[in-house]
Each structure stands twice: as structure tokens, then as C-alpha cells.
Design goal:
42% helix
Length: 193
């Protein structure tokens, strides 16, 4: 079974993020979900990002990097939206990563000092009309990663919601999340073989 370090999105460590982690745990995986916001929760992306800007975007990412040092290197990094930055950076730069799961976001691999590691599997999930994922360049970064990595998959779901797999939010899409979870569990099972 896999060990996963999962980073939350810009609304904080919501009940929906914990519910998602619990779904993975029910399948037998170990999931760590650190709170990078020290208990702060938000209802709107703009408010969450204002908090991120107050603390500092780099500081939030570095909090994720520091948390990772408490866990084995042989781990899967996962992130939702804002949390993708720390997850992707760790997957690219911390030796020993087993895989990466990037939800609602992806950044150019050139953003970090090392290229995507040879043979490191990754899945990227987003909605095909999500303005954050599509209009802000994430989908292009995802397509570039898929084109250059050995084992990379990009899954697009119909819809325009950003936080579609967070069951505690109005943007939740149960059908898309069911399919996303199925694909994630298959990914994790494949890593165990």
C-alpha cells in the first residue's frame, strides 16, 4: 500500500480534503494531510489567496517542503490547486519520490531547478472548462509534462468547477470525483505492482 503526503488547496484544510484522504485510507493507503494554514479556513478562493499573499506564497510552499522532511523519501506527493506547487516541487526535486498526483493545477517543470525525474509516474486531473486550470496556463503545463514524462496522464472532466473533488464545497461534482478516485486508486495499485 502507498504512503501519500497530500497538500490542501487555498481554502485550507477543509472537511472535503479530509474526506478525500479518508477514501484513500479506506483502500488501505496511509495518507498524511498537513495543515499549511494553521487552522485558517476560507469560503472563497480570493480570501484564501489573500491569506497566502499575506503569509507569502513561497512560505506556504516551504511549509510543505519542511513537513515532507518528517516523512520517508519514498512517498507519493499529492496536492489540490495551491498544494500542487509543493507536491510538484517535492516530486521533482526530492530524491526517492514514488509518484505524484496533481489536482486542479500544474506548473511548468522549468519552475524548479531539476527536470521531471525519469520514470516518475504522475497523474494530473482538472475540469476542461475550469477558468483557473484552463485560462491560467495550468493545462498547457500539464500537457507539456505529459508530453515529456515517461509515465504521465492528464485527465479532463467536463465542467467549469475548480474544487470539484471537495465534498464540503458547492463546487463538488460527485460523478467527476467518483471517476477521479477510481483513476487515483488504479494509479496507486499500479505503483504497488
Amino acid at each position: 500500500m502507498a504512503e501519500i503526503l497530500l497538500f490542501h488547496h487555498s481554502l485550507g484544510l477543509t472537511k472535503g480534503i479530509n474526506d478525500f484522504a479518508d477514501e484513500l485510507r479506506r483502500a488501505g493507503h496511509t495518507v498524511h494531510v498537513p495543515d499549511l494554514f494553521d487552522g485558517h479556513l476560507f469560503t472563497m478562493i480570493e480570501d484564501g489567496m489573500a491569506y497566502v499573499n499575506e503569509i507569502g506564497f513561497e512560505e506556504i510552499t516551504e511549509r510543505g517542503i519542511r513537513v515532507a522532511s518528517e516523512f520517508p523519501r519514498e512517498i507519493i506527493y499529492a496536492g489540490f490547486s495551491l498544494g500542487v506547487v509543493a507536491a510538484q516541487k517535492l516530486a521533482q526535486t526530492r530524491e526517492g519520490a514514488r509518484g505524484a498526483l496533481l489536482f486542479y493545477s500544474c506548473v511548468l517543470t522549468s519552475m524548479f531547478e531539476f527536470p521531471w525525474p525519469t520514470g516518475l509516474p504522475v497523474q494530473i486531473h482538472g475540469m476542461d472548462a475550469d477558468p483557473y486550470f484552463v485560462d491560467e496556463g495550468d493545462i498547457e503545463a500539464a500537457r507539456e509534462l505529459v508530453a515529456t514524462a515517461d509515465h504521465a496522464e492528464l485527465f479532463l472532466y467536463p465542467g467549469n468547477q475548480h474544487f470539484f473533488a471537495d465534498s464540503s464545497l458547492p463546487s463538488y461534482d460527485a460523478n467527476a470525483t467518483t471517476l477521479l478516485l477510481k483513476r487515483v486508486l488504479e494509479f496507486l495499485q499500479h505503483l504497488d505492482n
